[in-house]
Amino acid sequence: MPKSAKVRQVCPLRKAEPGCRHPFRDGGYDLAMAQAPAAEFRRRVLLVHGEQKFLDECSAELRKRGYEVLLAREGFEALCVLRGAVPEVLISELDLSRMSGFELLSVVRTRFPQVAVIATSGEYTAHSLPIETTADAFVANGPNMIFELMEAVNTAISDSPVRGSKPKSQSASVWIPRSSTGYIILTCPECLRSFSVVQPKAEMDKTLQEACISCGARVRFSISTGAMVHPPGRTDSNLTSRDRIKQSEATISASKEALAASRAMIAKKKRK
């Protein structure tokens, strides 16, 4: 057979439909299409540290090993990154500005339990690290820190599942009971911090929004038209400081109970 001749093969299973490209049709088998390598899946690592030099050195080593690297300088910036991209591994320094690394790890463990967490610190060792630290691994600062971090990342990746799709955002608003104090307590679903806002005088039973004073996320809530929450104690205008503190504590407790009930209802609907 001449070298220039093409080998024509016909698919025995079905006839090619008009307009449908078939690897066995017209001119032989398309080797380029059949042998094209699949797109490489790159594992994602979020690196949170206050020093730019460390971010540069550690991220360079991670990229050299084939990882996709996301960077943040402090806790709230890390939460902003997590809104758009969830990694397999989070590496975080414990001594961060604004939001401590301990608080960040706690928030990530609550909101993203599938993410493996590696903590780093120059103030603690593996023996002095607080037992409450929600981390899967710990690497202390030292001359071999980068190498130890790479080993910890490899271990975490081998134990973690393949990254899934981006989790759906929580669209349901939190229902808050009316308060006689004139303000309400909201808890941010992003950073899990609570803050107080002036209670709207109108728009009852309608969805409202307030910006979290810590991370800037929008908190959706609704004011219930049910019974108003009356804190225990005196209700006249000459309240003492102690009475006002008691009223505030009662309002916060009632708001937390309503928040827990709303979350339980949302979780129940998701299970259905």
What is the number of helical segments per DSSP (H or I, 4+ residues)?
6
Q: In angstroms, what is the radius of gyration?
A: 28 Å
Distance between the termini: 66 Å
Low-confidence stretches: 3-38, 163-171
User: Average pLDDT, to the nearest integer?
Assistant: 75
Number of strands: 10
Spatial strand arrangement across the major sheet: 2-1-3-4-5
Largest sheet: 5 strands, parallel
Task: Choose one word for the global shape.
Answer: elongated
- Taken in chain order, the helices and strands follow as HEHEHEHEEHEEEEEH
Strand content: 15-25%
Helix content: 25-40%
Structural class: alpha/beta
Provide a descriptive summary of the structure in words.
It is a single chain. By secondary structure, the protein is an alpha/beta fold. It is built from six helices and ten strands. Helix 3 packs parallel to helix 4. The chain is elongated and about 60 Å long. The N terminus is likely disordered.
